[in-house]
Amino acid sequence: MFSYNKKLQYPVKIKNPNPNLAKIILTQYGGPDGELGASLRYLSQRYSMPFDELRGLLTDIGTEELGHLEMIGAIVHQLTRNLNGNQMKDPAFAPYFVDHTAGVYPAAAVGTPWSAATMQVTGDPMADLVEDLAAEQKARVTYDNILRICDDPDVNDVIRFLREREIVHFQRFGEAVQLLRDKLNQKNVYYMNPAIDL
Amino acid sequence: MQPKNKNIVTGIGKLPALAPLANPYVPFQVDDPEQYERNCGLVRGTIYPGLDLPFMGMVNKEPLPQSALTQLQELDFAVQELALYLDTHRDDKEALALYRRYQQMYRDHCMAYTETHGPLNHTEPVTSEEYSWLNDPWPWEYCANKED
Does the predicted TM-score (pTM) go above 0.90? Predict the structure, then answer.
């Protein structure tokens, strides 16, 4: 089961509200390569994953991603506090405001609501782990792009932490592929699906 | 912010002599890898210099302002980082010993933190006579990360 710990993984303290920036950061909450998709992808893939190391890794990284989801939510929340009339009417933020006020809604930067179509659970360990490697790279690029366009040091401090986590997770998923491969047919790793044929 | 041993070659891993075709290969991180000091790990996003690969040289240089909360976050982070490492390196005894040491430090800090700041979760025993779960600011609030 999951139980909530009343603290963030890394401190989030954003001095200056900036709703337009909030709309950009929101993509890591509910966008195609965001933290919600990451956590659901890993926590869903673990059921069909053979071998304890792989189950453990998906559980631990999936749980950490839920903590990252909360940190992104905290950034968006703090960037949209104390809104004034001009900020609400700003053409870049008004469409979000009219639907969600200062709430945190899982959507991409362009407004598309979060969708399970952005992730996959194939039930094949190799295919799922290779998807996870790609997912970490896509999230890393999204953070790179945020660092390029965001000039708020309080936000970037947190984004740099989250970006580095993607790199560490990529390394661990890469090692997981090796652990999996060691347990498969050494002449043909694609001989069968170890989730159902072992 | 430098590794303890400045001569260490970071980024080293190990590859087998023959890698199979048509399958991705990420080198294994070597056992007992070089680590940052505890207060440096959290701000860099990893305790391993070999995995610390910042974008365009943009790095968090300053350690976090020290508070009861950030100390707890540093210890929690060290435990998490070592847990992910141990998931794929379950036989690394040095890492396991370090993991246990950080777990103990986390438990000690946690008790001290809960005394003054209220419970972190519902199962931690609290001494307060009142229902203190609702008292403190929630973690996502601006005022929740005050330096005290």
Answer: yes
